[in-house]
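Appendix C: a fully annotated inverse folding record. The material below is reproduced so that readers can follow the format used throughout the book. The structure is listed first as tokens, followed by the designed sequence.
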């Protein structure tokens, strides 16, 4: 990930509803969530959720796919891991053991548990 991509991603995440959406999609895993379910769970109107989903998709942090009549959104784990790696790439002046826990998260990028999101 380059600096421009990181800035777009951070810009998308700097809004409360969008950050909440990304965290929900991380929890939902590869199955993702339909736009209506995201709106309901985030307590946001369908038109408002559409705006936020477009911004997140433009940033590359989420992806969408059509399944029958629904659009399913999923977290882009590769992009999220890339964002973490971007932040940590010059970690601790060459002492990787200091930031090893964060590096492990970036390498794995496993979905967070529901408890971690609360």
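Designed amino acids, in order:
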């Amino acid at each position: 990930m380059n600096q421009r991509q990181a800035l777009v991603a951070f810009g998308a995440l700097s809004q409360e509803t969008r950050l909440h959406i990304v965290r929900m999609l991380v929890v939902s895993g590869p199955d993702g969530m339909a736009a209506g379910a995201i709106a309901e769970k985030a307590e946001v109107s369908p038109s408002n959720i559409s705006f936020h989903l477009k911004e997140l998709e433009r940033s590359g942090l989420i992806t969408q796919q059509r399944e029958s009549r629904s659009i399913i959104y999923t977290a882009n784990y590769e992009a999220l891991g890339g964002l973490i790696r971007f932040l940590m790439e010059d970690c601790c002046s060459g002492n990787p053991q200091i930031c090893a826990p964060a590096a492990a998260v970036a390498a794995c990028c496993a979905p967070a548990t529901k408890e971690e999101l609360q």
